[in-house]
Amino acid sequence: MRIPNKVSKDSKMPFQIEKTKLLFVEGKDEVFFFDKLFKHLEIEDIQLVEIGGVEQMSVKLAAFMLIPDFESVKSIGFVRDADHSFDSAMQSMRMILENNGLQSSSNHGQVTQDESDRRIGIFIMPGENIEGTMLEDLCLHIIKERKYVELIDQYIVDLNKNELPVPSNLAKAKTQIYLASQRKIVHSIGLAAQKRYWDLTHPGLDEFKEFIKKL
User: Fold this and answer.
1) pTM score of the predicted model
2) What is the mean pLDDT of the chain?
């Protein structure tokens, strides 16, 4: 599989804009996850871009916009985790875009057109209808064999009962437990998507699929 582009720190290897629709994501896990989802949906007109965490996003976006071919881009989507607060994550993303001269809707999942008719939208993971703060929460929601989830939850309960340390990030811990339970173990949710360990037909993905259709 060809790994989609990321914004390179090496000026000798400039980023290449290959499509008129771009989806900026935080890391490799997201790149591999959405790459598999797009193949499943037969989406071929969106280029995935690994831009790094929110702390780096504003600077990297500014550099990216200096690429001459950026003017040819017609649609831009941004995906980031809610982290500690869904509303704060949305506000932070809007500020990053505004600081770089880009306009966006104030609402998660909506796509609006700016003055140059470029479509721009923001999606905060795991979405409005799924409890949690990150892509891992969405992945746990779309596990097809729900018995896994019950057993993993019980494992966490048993740790508490026995006064054993419980992971601080439960979503990440639970996804790793699930992945370690597969016949062929992988260690990231992105590679797990490539292995079809997530149910890409699950209704829990419908909100994100609608967002992508609007871009």
Assistant:
1) 0.91
2) 92
